[in-house]
Amino acid sequence: MFETIFALIRNQFPQDKIPLHEPRFVGNEQAYLAECIASTMVSSVGSFVDQFEEAVASYTGSQYAIAMVNGTQALFLALKLAGVSPGSEVLTQSLTFVATANAISYCGAIPHFLDVDPETLGLSPLALKKYLDEQTEISNGQRINRTSGRPISACLPMHTCGHPCRIAELAEICRTYEIPLVEDAAESLGSFLQGQHTGTFGLLGTLSFNGNKIITTGGGGMILTDNQELATAARHLTTTAKQAHPYEFIHDEIGYNFRMPNINAALGLAQIERLPDFVRQKRQLATNYRQALAALPVTFVDEPPDCQSNFWLNTLLFDSAQQKTSFLEQANQRGIFARSLWRPMHQLKIYRNCPQEALPVTENIYQRAASIPSSVRITS
Ligand SMILES: *Cc1c(COP(=O)(O)O)cnc(C)c1O
């Protein structure tokens, strides 16, 4: 079976060594970078930042979009703006890239791991509701974890591999229990649930433009929100909390240097112009994989119902951990850079002692999941 899968992957990509994900620069990248350099405005904030923010806001339907240095810091700041305070707990999934949990830690808060849903690989609404119903209570006007006594300050789901999680249901639960919802949409630019873009269902959402994401700015990220106050606070805090003044330096808070440089935004603007085409091409690649794999005893992780996924990272589920491991070993020996999904956070030494509920789906998926090359293909 492996040989059939390797041949299928080789059919999609011309290279001898096939990376998991590489960027494509086929549009106005060179032109905008040259224009940016010629203007000398390469550093923090400039017209490309404004244009890139407007393009992302318009594509996602978010009222506000604030460009930042990377997705991890965007997530950290979004959590902080949502009110995540030191010593509180943030409900999140264990099956995620480490940045999700790290952003919680940067706030001085503690990640609390819940299981994922087998269909979407994102946070399970059933697990969330069950946990809130059975293990939390209101104390002094705050929802607290009954076991630890710590307040629950936010819920942070992630759209795994670009597939929208059951975010409308999660949003409804968070509304009922009055818990701020922040979405890690780092992988899901171009993914929609019932026509609404991922990252726009909660109080705040975040994107990443790292080199392996569907579009890249080299390094970069963005906060999405419909809340004007939070958008203003995000802009202020990411530019060292400096008050507007023609020549004095007055900072009214301890801020951060987290804004995206203009030169990165020049790249981003050229990239987002190509996004609809990238999404189309990634969906075509997924269709090719899906059709060819249908005859094999392996599960192709498909887009959930009512969704349009960007298929950021195509993923296979094998029958056993052993089968997954031998697939990954053989693929890599052949120059096909297939990868495991992330080791679940509760299995990492750094997060092992964090509060967690039963995680059977997370563990099962991790044991069986292998991601296969998913770049946008160069077509003539
Ligand atoms: C890529 C990614 C991030 C942010 O990554 P940066 O490299 O900091 O831009 C956050 N969460 C998830 C799930 C990611 O995949």
Quickly describe the structure:
The protein has about 375 residues and is α+β, with helices and mostly antiparallel strands.
What is the overall shape? globular
- What is the count of DSSP helices, taking H or I runs of 4+ residues? 11
Task: Count the beta strands.
Answer: 16
Q: Which sequence of strands runs across the widest sheet?
A: 1-11-10-7
What name is given to the CATH topology of the largest domain? Aspartate Aminotransferase, domain 2
How many structurally independent domains? 2
Q: Identify the CATH architecture of the largest domain.
A: 3-Layer(aba) Sandwich
Share in β-strands: 15-25%
Structural class, by secondary structure, is alpha+beta
Highest-level CATH class of the largest domain: Alpha Beta
Distance between the termini: 31 Å
What ligand molecules are bound, each kind once? pyridoxal-5'-phosphate
What would the average pLDDT be, to the nearest integer?
97
Under CATH, the homologous superfamily of the largest domain reads: Type I PLP-dependent aspartate aminotransferase-like (Major domain)
The major β-sheet equals: 4 strands, mixed
Q: What value does the Rg take, in angstroms?
A: 21 Å
SSE string: HHHEHEHEHEEEHEEEEEHHEEEHEHE
Uncertain residue segments: none
Amount of helix: 25-40%
